[in-house]
Specification:
Elements lengths: L2 H10 L12 E2 L22 H7 L4 E6 L2 E4 L3 H12 L4 E4 L34 H12 L5 H13 L4 E4 L3 E8 L2 E9 L4 E6 L2 E4 L5 H6 L3 E3 L4 H4 L15 E2 L2 E5 L36 E2 L9 H21 L9 E6 L4 E2 L3 E3 L7 H4 L9 E5 L3 E3 L14 E3 L5 E4 L11 E3 L8 H7 L2 H21 L3 H5 L2 H13 L20 E4 L27 E4 L5 E20 L13 H4 L11 E9 L5 E7 L6 E21 L4 E10 L1
Parallel strand pairs: 1-2, 2-8, 3-4, 3-9, 4-5, 9-21
Antiparallel strand pairs: 6-7, 7-8, 10-16, 11-13, 11-15, 12-14, 17-20, 18-19, 22-24, 23-28, 24-27, 24-28, 25-26, 25-27
């Protein structure tokens, strides 16, 4: 029986109603705990399903229903799944590895960078979920363990009751009808399960666009011709080549001589080959050990792995044994990646293809903006290390951060397929900036939030993008979740704080109390126009919001300063890590309480917090009628100044 026959017998041959195959397991665990079970279709056996089960007699079939299916557990997929789940969607997240994080995991160890460009554009560090994760990691993983970062991501996903996580599972087929995905097939040979998953919305966060490939979505590979999108950095003629892949390593000083003998298949590296690739430290390998963009980075991955390993070991042999680096004598390699960190493969085509001119701000501001990018246009020669006579990259700083539109995050021909990460709808030139993982993370948060909204309102992504009122709802939801969208601010009509008068115990001339309701939640270096700041002196600094008439409150949201002017990432590089504070950020408010007076004049403590280190804090409490609330800051994590960017109040 060939693959096509097996898929047909599995119910993918035009059968549109999801039903349980004979012997299948109906798994209710995927359903959110806060929702009653939805009615399932009757237990009807589709034609041929008995034969399909017989074709895999040792596999258990499982049917899953969800609101949002996410393929791929890298940073884009994790953020998409968590965002969708926190907005009430029932999510199935499938990852083909035993851990989450993709290129950011301990299997590859690439540190996450984004719009601030290794602090070349200070102040533009991403907010939202990726900031939450980074802050947790800085506090709980000060010793820079990559395995603890893996665990953090696993914990974030497992804490969400609306997410069903399937690790070590591979998506291998999809069923479509009339331009719409109906269900997918996923298999786990480790546990001998075959899953059939049905959902109204699907997200491809695989990087390689595997779900899009199976669904028949339009995509492209390679580099566009210059005239196709009027991109000055594009080639004269299009080709199929891409950015290459890299394998990293780590090493440490053992305090005694550590010999190294390279295998016979390692490359012999010469000093001349390294003239554009400087070797100045060796605790963390080199991104410029890159290769394979001249091949197919998907189908030729095994050949690419071998070539990269041969180069890595050749470079390490040169460091250890050439005599040019005698200070490496006590250093030994203690980890070597076995999975190529991929930069580019397939890109799914959406209603909008992001281009160089979009990133340069030449086409105006997209009305459907949902996330930001800002990493430079950073192209590499496809053959990477083999082109030793050329620099390993060409980096061009953009004039400003840019917005990514929703139209670049859904397929133009598969109506309920969305995407996030390096498979977004973009040209090769635009991808050279948008591919970095913090940008992939905020795309994931945007796509997951949009998918949850579509599922709740029974919409397709294109319908959302074309409806100004719903698009505004999406953008305001993202802003409330601390997602940055350039030139957008809090206009939430439900936020009662926007109608309050704000006073404080004290304020700096450039850090006025009223800034906390101006709608913006970041300042660039040297600016103090969007946050309140006051000295923390006993008994502390306070900020008060008052209304002309009592308001009914049950929820308050605070956004604190977490030092966006600095880089914050997990890196094995000592030089990168030297600039990073791996503990609570000193500017952040640590201890505070929120109080009010009820209608009888009695003082009511609503919230008391000690030990905070997060930027975004949300507090629910029993409803209270009050004309004023006060936030009393008693301590920070090191600064002598209390700083708050935003206060939101909801009834």
């Amino acid at each position: 029986m060939n693959r096509r026959q097996f898929i047909s017998l599995g119910g993918l041959g035009g059968y549109s109603l999801m039903v349980r195959a004979e012997g299948a397991i109906s798994d209710p665990a995927v359903r959110g705990q806060d929702r009653p079970p939805e009615p399932r279709p009757p237990s009807v056996t589709p034609a041929g399903s008995a034969a399909a089960v017989a074709a895999e007699p040792h596999m258990a079939w499982v049917d899953l229903d969800c609101d949002v299916f996410v393929a791929g557990g890298g940073m884009a997929g994790v953020c998409a799944a968590v965002a969708a789940a926190r907005h009430g969607a029932r999510v199935v997240l499938v990852q083909d590895r035993s851990r989450l994080g993709g290129n950011a995991s301990s299997e590859v160890k690439m540190h996450i960078v984004g719009a601030d460009g290794h602090n070349a554009r200070p102040g533009w560090r991403e907010g939202g979920l990726i900031e939450e994760f980074r802050l947790d990691d800085a506090v709980h993983n000060p010793h820079r363990s990559w395995e603890l970062w893996d665990l953090l991501l696993y914990d974030k996903v497992k804490r969400e009751p609306n997410i069903r996580l399937l690790l070590d599972n591979t998506l291998f087929a999809a069923a479509t009808a009339a331009g719409r995905l109906e269900h997918v097939l996923v298999r786990c040979d480790k546990t001998e399960h075959l899953y059939r998953v049905r959902a109204p919305l699907f997200l491809d966060c695989t990087g390689d666009s595997r779900l899009a490939l199976e669904a028949g979505a339009e995509f492209r590979q390679g580099r566009e011709a210059r005239l196709e999108f009027n991109e000055t950095l594009a080639l004269e003629q299009a080709d199929r080549q891409t950015l290459g892949s890299s394998i990293l390593f780590t090493a440490r000083d053992y305090g005694r001589p550590i010999p190294f003998h390279s295998p016979p298949w390692a490359r012999k590296i010469t000093k001349d080959q390294l003239r554009f690739r400087p070797v100045s430290s060796w605790e963390y390998g080199y991104w410029w050990i890159e290769w394979g963009g001249q091949l197919d980075t998907i189908r030729d991955n095994e050949q690419i792995r071998f070539a990269l390993l041969s180069i890595v070991l050749g470079v390490w042999d040169y460091i250890k044994n050439s005599g040019d680096h005698p200070s490496s004598a006590n250093w030994g390699m203690d980890w070597l990646g076995m999975i190529p960190g991929k930069r580019e493969s397939r890109r799914i085509l959406g209603d909008h293809i992001l281009t160089q001119t979009d990133l340069a701000g030449q086409n105006g501001d997209a009305a459907d903006a949902v996330a930001i990018g800002g990493w430079p246009l950073d192209d590499h020669p496809p053959s990477g290390f083999d082109v030793s006579e050329q620099p390993p990259f060409r980096s061009i700083k953009l004039p400003d951060v840019y917005n990514i539109p929703l139209r670049s995050l859904y397929s133009r021909n598969i109506n309920n397929l969305m995407m996030a990460g390096r498979n977004l709808s973009a040209t090769h030139v635009a991808l050279s900036s948008a591919r970095v993982m913090a940008t992939c993370s905020v795309m994931g948060q945007a796509a997951g939030t949009a998918a949850a909204l579509c599922a709740r309102k029974n919409l397709l992504p294109r319908q959302l993008a074309q409806n100004p009122a719903l698009l505004e709802e999406l953008q305001q939801t993202l802003l409330r979740d601390d997602q940055t969208i350039k030139n957008r601010k809090n206009n939430d009509p439900l936020d009662l704080a926007r109608r309050a008068t704000v006073t404080a115990s004290a304020e700096f001339e450039s850090g006025k109390a009223e800034n906390v309701i101006n709608g913006f939640v970041r300042d660039l270096p040297g600016q103090w126009t969007n946050r309140w700041a006051a000295p923390v002196e006993p008994p502390g600094a306070w900020l008060e919001l008052a209304w002309a008439t009592p308001q009914r409150l049950r929820h308050i949201q605070l956004t604190f300063d977490t030092g966006f002017q600095r880089e914050l990432t997990l890196s094995a590089s000592d030089s990168v890590s030297a600039k990073i504070i791996r503990r609570p950020q000193p500017e952040t408010v640590r201890d505070y309480e929120i109080t009010c007076q009820d209608t009888t004049g009695a003082a009511v403590r609503l919230v008391r917090v000690e030990g905070n280190y997060q930027r975004l804090r949300r507090h629910d409490f029993p409803p209270v009628e009050t004309a004023a609330v006060r936030i009393q800051v008693t301590a920070t994590n090191g600064s002598d100044t209390a700083r708050i960017y935003e206060v939101r109040c909801y009834g």
